[in-house]
Amino acid sequence: MAARIAIMGTGAVGAYAGAHMAQAGEDVTFIDMWPENVEAMRANGLRVTHLRDVPEFVTPVTALHLTEVQKISRGQPFDIVFICTKSYDTEWAAVMMRQYLAPGGFMVSLQNCMNEATIAGVVGWGRTLGAIASSITVDLALPGHVKRASGKGGAAHTVYRVGEVHGRITDRAKEVARLCALSDSTLVTTNLWGERWSKLVTNAMANGLSACTGMISRDTLMNDALRRFGARLGSEAIRTGQALGYSLEEVHHMDPETIAKAGEGDPEALAEYDAHRLAEAAKGGGAHRPSMGQDMVKGRRTEIAFINGYIVDRAAEIGIETPANAALTRIVQQVERGELQPGPEHILNLRLN
C-alpha cells in the first residue's frame, strides 16, 4: 500500500516538492493556513512554473484548511508528514499533526533552519528525519502557483539532502529521498547536521541582507561592501559550526574554509571569494529574492531569529563573538517592525570592530 503523505504548510518548498509527488501519483494531502491558497489548490490544482528549461504543469491535489484537519480522524492516518512551515510555526504544526500520524509514521523537517530538535520534542527522535532543500529558489507567487527562479538543479547541483539524525542510511530515508527526487536531484546523507549547518550558513549570508536592504541577491553580490559583509556573516557562522563539532559541506559551491578566511580578511581567500561570487552573479545567479526577502516584501514575519539570531545564540554558548550576525539580526527586526525602511545604508553605515 502506498504511503499516505501530508504536506503541513504549503508554502514555496512544500508546494514545489509536494506538487511533483502528486503529479507522480503519490497519495498526498496538502494542509495550509492561507485560505486563498487552499481554495486555489482546490479549484485549479497546483501550478508549477520555472524560469527556464522546464515545461509548466498543473496537477490536481487534495487540500485542507487548518480548520478541516480534524476530518483526518475519520480516515487513515499519515505515514509521512513533511513539516514545511516557517521555523516559528514548527512546534504547533508538529503537535497538530502528531495525533494523525500512523503508529509507524514519522515526520520530516523540510524547512530552513535547525528544527529537528523541536519536532523530536513532540514526536521523539526516532520519528524525526531531516531534509534540506539547497539553493532551490522557489516562491509561492500567487495562491496555488509556485515559481522557481531557475531550471532544475540536476547533476550540476544536488538540491535535496535527506538524512537520519543518527547518520545511518535507512530504508525510510531512502523513501523520503525517492519522494524528493520526483522534483529534483537528491542524495541520502550520513551528515545531516553538517548539511543542515552548511545550509544555515548559506541562508545567513543572503537572506537577512535581502530582507533589510530590499535588494535581490544578485544586486547584493555586485556591491563590494555588501558582498564582503556576506563573507563576514558566513565566516562567523562557519567558525561557530566548526567549534560546535559539525563537519561542514560546501557553501555556495565553495570550501567553507575559503569563506571563513575571506570574512576574516585573508587577501588570497578574499580574492577567491570575490571572483567566485561575482562570476555566479554574472552567470545569472541570484536573480531572485531569497525567502526572507520575500517575507519582508509580503509583510510576513521573518525567520531572522532562527537563522542569524540562532547563530549568535549558539556562538554565545561557547564564547565566540558574532558581531556581524548580531547587527544584521537587530537591523532586520527593526525593518520588520517598521522602525526602519529597507535600504542598503543600514549595512553600509555599520562600523564593526
Give the topology:
Blueprint: E1 4-8, H1 12-23, E2 27-32, H2 35-44, E3 46-50, E4 57-59, E5 62-65, E6 78-83, H3 90-98, E7 101-110, H4 116-123, E8 128-133, E9 138-142, E10 145-148, E11 160-164, H5 171-180, E12 186-188, H6 192-213, H7 217-222, H8 224-243, H9 256-263, H10 267-282, H11 291-298, H12 308-317, H13 323-336, H14 345-348
Parallel strand pairs: 1-2, 1-6, 2-5, 3-10, 6-7, 7-8, 11-12
Antiparallel strand pairs: 3-4, 8-11, 9-10
Keywords: NADP, Oxidoreductase, Pantothenate biosynthesis
GO molecular function: 2-dehydropantoate 2-reductase activity; NADP binding
Organism: Plastoroseomonas arctica
Structure in a nutshell:
It contains 14 helices and twelve strands. It is an alpha/beta fold. It has two domains: 4-189, Rossmann fold (3-Layer(aba) Sandwich); 195-348, N-(1-d-carboxylethyl)-l-norvaline Dehydrogenase, domain 2 (Orthogonal Bundle), CATH 1.10.1040.10.
Would you give an account of this structure?
The protein is of the alpha/beta class and 353 residues long. The chain folds into two domains: 4-189, Rossmann fold; 195-348, N-(1-d-carboxylethyl)-l-norvaline Dehydrogenase, domain 2, CATH 1.10.1040.10. 44% of the residues lie in helices and 18% in strands. The chain contains 14 helices and twelve strands. The protein has an eight-stranded mixed sheet, sandwiched between helices. A four-stranded mixed sheet has the order 4-3-10-9. Helix 6 packs across helix 11 and helix 8 (224-243) packs across helix 12 (308-317). The N and C termini lie far apart (60 Å). The mean pLDDT is 96.
